Amino acid sequence: MKVVSSREFNQDVSAAKRLARLEPVFVTDRGRPTHVLMSIQAFRQLSGQRESIVDLLALPDSGEAELAPERWDRLERR
Predict the structure, then answer these.
(1) Tens digits of per-residue pLDDT, 42-59?
(2) Which residue from 1, 10, 18, 19 has the least number of CB within 10 angstroms?
(3) Cα 33-49-41 angle, rounded to 5 deg
(4) Residue 46 belongs to what H/E stretch?
(5) Ramachandran assignment for 65, one of left (phi > 0), alpha (psi -120 to 50 degrees), beta (any other)
(6) Which long-range contacts (CB under 8 A, 24 or more apart) does 35-40 make?
(7) Mean pLDDT for the stretch of residues 59-64
(8) Cα–Cα distance for residue pair 31/47, rounded to 1 Å
(9) How far is residue 22's CA from residue 27's CA, in Å, rounded to a whole number?
(10) Dihedral sign, CA of 76, 54, 50, 40?
(11) Listed residue (57, 53, 51, 5) closest to 30, CA to CA
(12) How far apart are CA 7 and CA 27, in angstroms?
C-alpha cells in the first residue's frame, strides 16, 4: 500500500495513477487518510462487479480484431 499526501497527489496525479495500477494508493490530508485511488480492475474485483455488455461495446474498434477468447468466456457465464 502506497501513501501520498494530498499535496504530492496534486503535484503529480499521473504518478499516483501509475502506482494505483499496482496497488491502492492512500491519499492523506494532514496525515490522515481521506481517499483511496485504485485501478478500475481492482475496484471491480473488490465490489464483485463484472464487465457488462456496455463495457464490452465501449472497447476501441481495432478494425477486424475479434474479442479475445477470455472475453467470450465471461459472456457465456452470464
Answers:
(1) 988 888 877 677 777 877
(2) 1
(3) 60
(4) helix 40-47
(5) beta
(6) 37/9
(7) 62
(8) 27
(9) 15
(10) positive
(11) 5
(12) 9
